[in-house]
Amino acid sequence: MIHMPGLPFLASKDGATIDFSLLLIHLLMLAMLLAWGAVFVIILARFRRSRHPKAEYAGIKTRLAGWAEAGVVVAEAAMLVGISIPFWATRVNAVPGADQQPVEVRVVAQQYVWNVHYPGPDGKFGRTNALLVDDKAGNPVGLDRNDPAAKDDVIAVNQLHLPVNRPVIVHLTSKDVIHSFALPELRVKRDAIPGMTVDVPFTPTVTTAQFRNELKAEATRSYSEKPGGLADQLAAIDKRDYEIACAQMCGLAHYRMRGTLVVQTQDEFQKWLKEQSLRSSVVEETW
Amino acid sequence: MTSHSPSLPSKAERNPAAFSFRAALVSTDHKVIGILYGVTALTFLLTGFLIMMLMRWQLAYPGRALPGASALFGSNSARMPGGVMVPEFYYQLGAMHGTIMVFLAIVPLLVGAFGTYLVPLQLGAPNTAFPRLTRLGYWSYLAGGVVWLSSFALPGGAAQSGWTSYPPLSIIAGHGQTFWLIGMILIIVSSIAGAINMIVTIIQLRVIGLTYMRLPFFVWSQLVTAFLLLLAFPPLGAAGILQLMDRVVDTSFFLPSGLVVSGAALTANVGGQTIPRGGGSALLWQHLFWFLAHPEVYVLVLPAMGMVAEILANNARKPLWGYKSMVYGTIFLGVMSMLVWAHHMFLTGMGTVITAFFQATTMIVSIPSIIVLTALLASLWGGAIRFNTPMLFALAFLPMFGIGGLTGLPLGLAVTDIHLHDTYYVIDHFHYIVVCGTLSAIFGGIYYWFPKVTGRAMNERLGRIHFWSSLVLLNCIFMPMFIQGMAGVSRRLYDGGLSYAHAQPVLKLNVFITHAAFALALAQIPFIVNLLWSLRRGPRVEANPWQATTLEWAAASPPLAQGNFETPPVAHRGPCEYSVPGKDKDYTPQWEQ
Predict the structure, then answer these.
(1) Can you give the residue ranges of every domain in chain B?
(2) What are A13-44's pLDDT values in tens digits?
(3) What pTM does this model have?
(4) Residues of A in contact with B317 (CB under 8 A)
(5) DSSP assignment of B218-282, as one string?
(6) Using CB atoms, which residue from A25, A44, A250 is nearest to B169?
(7) How many structural domains comprise chain A?
(8) Which of A145, A255, A279, B181 has its CA 20 to 30 A from that of B26?
(9) Are residues A167 and A114 part of one domain?
(10) What angle do CA A25, A31, A37 make, to 5 degrees?
(11) Is B379–A246 a contact, with Cβ atoms under 8 angstroms apart?
(12) CATH topology for B30-254+281-554?
């Protein structure tokens, strides 16, 4: 199985379709460029003035151009109808139902942090109100603590914890300007737009620990080719996390609006959520 | 009709050296205004390029002092303290690079300079249909440019919300954004005036015998372009005025309710009362903006295709292959380009039906592009190709535009757009089209029509040096960006991706790209020298040095200041009758009996 070269590590279920589509479309592009380029070079060589001093008035009679165009139309239509539209209908735009026991989490972007809001063990998000927003008092999403459903809610900043192999729904919005919630390793990207909430479904398939092990194995494999201390490389990988990147320019510190995603086993995730819920306070990560 | 009587021109009027700045200020002659557009737009092109070089230094060496920056900006400049660029300045440069290049450089070169200068000549007309509208267009354009450039001197600097100016960011930004909107409204006035003028000129001022299917392909490309400008700019004009209202009188067209900016709710002061702002939509701007800005992409391409077609046919000494299919393809392209705008917005939470529609239209719009490109390629088959500088640039347009067009496919398909959206892949895609493609065509056009404008030829050797070095360096700059985009590196990052672990493997490419960009600047020196030297010392040429067939070559080089032609030409045949069997010379001009 060939992969599209140059892509980041893949750690989600639906990302495989995206990667496969990227490969297919680039193969199509390459074929078109090579075929077209070959004709171009042949023409330039064959019909240069020194070799072909007298031009012909009549144009070339060929059905080739028509067939090539028809081929491109068919290939594009196949990609569109066969992959892209169904993918949008069944994955991007289809939120998993309760029968699949999805993990639900709100992500509220702001200049320049990612606020993460978990419903806590009761599974219900507490009410929020823009007038209650107070970053300094540790209430960046405006959670109404008087609401019983809010009692066990968890707010985290710049870190998103998720269990592996369970469908996730991120309810994505923004407090101020437009941001874009990107998880490059999970092939997830969607704009966070103030005034509207967009549901972003995906399923992580590789825990952060597995991800680091894969990177380490890769570093060890390619070590002989690269000078430099392997130990240093491996130590750096121990700190490597999945990243939440902001992909839409959102202001002066847009370039460092970075969060981390930690993918854990179901048990680890439950344990983490319980701890946070007991504390019921903000987890601040400095960057 | 125009008031230009065919009075005999004085010697000073015929002599280009007598080009007087004072006369140019009040001129309504399409040639003078075309030259003004050309000179102004080339200056803006250089400005936009220098802005990009400052940014490229910061991307390659984030936080490192730029050598000579203190001489340029002062040692305690707020923009580059100690020679190191601050994020505020980076984002100003970013927004203004895009704005200047699109609205002040490339479109004015294609439409303002080449369009205004050449279309009346190719129609055999004495001037445009509305000469004073031509003048209004130029001065409004210049005013817009001056407003934009002067905004750098504001406290807080120029606009810094990207050339797309998405609200709410653009509404809470500093005064530079207000200037950006005012400048944009002036540019819109200029474009609409120019577009109306172009349409009426082409429909009304064709000489006897010049039927629609005898129009040079370049004229067709300008006609379709003018319709795009006329239809697409008014919505942006409306959007610009709405955003201006949001900024200066605290309306909320683009502000949804519940905004909390920097820890405080966004409010307006109405009659001494503080009320929360909101009730608008942030996405409305995006729809209005891209309703202009996608047709604008074709405005950036169609005239370039038109120029390339003229140069290719002339230097292959062959008629264009499938002229009619090219014309119909271009019209179809223009119509379809008005129906694809939301493919810039796949990730804004769009549903399946809407994405399906815009993906489908996007795939459909790729078909006429392929038809035109194929026709241009097929036009070369059986030719006797001469490789002069204009031809080299025109030929380079084909594969460069091809790469730019092909890389639009994975962005136009929503499934693959998820990973590539807002990455360097996008930047790269449109730079392959506009820089590697369109700018090549513009250079080819300058080398090709310079003899017509000045009566002198440009230097071939300098032209070839300019061509080959630019071609290689452009690809050195833009090829690596595909790799960065595929790795998922976002665009518009002040530190070029340094903050992100996933960007680390491809960061080194930034250094290579920046070096290539600086080398590309050096590669433009032969062009600038050639242009200035040939203006004074280039060898004199007669009316038709390329042995071409279209009507501009029937006029003297340069054409008469008053009325262009000694006697109005008559068109007897199609635009590119080269190598007609039974004729003793290999070109049969439109004006010959």
Answers:
(1) 30-254+281-554
(2) 999 999 999 999 999 999 999 999 999 999 99
(3) 0.94
(4) 55
(5) HHHHHHHHHHHHHHHHHHHHHHHHHHHHHHHS---TT--TT-EETTEE-EEEETTEEEE-----H
(6) A250
(7) 2
(8) B181
(9) yes
(10) 130
(11) no
(12) Cytochrome C Oxidase; Chain A (1.20.210)
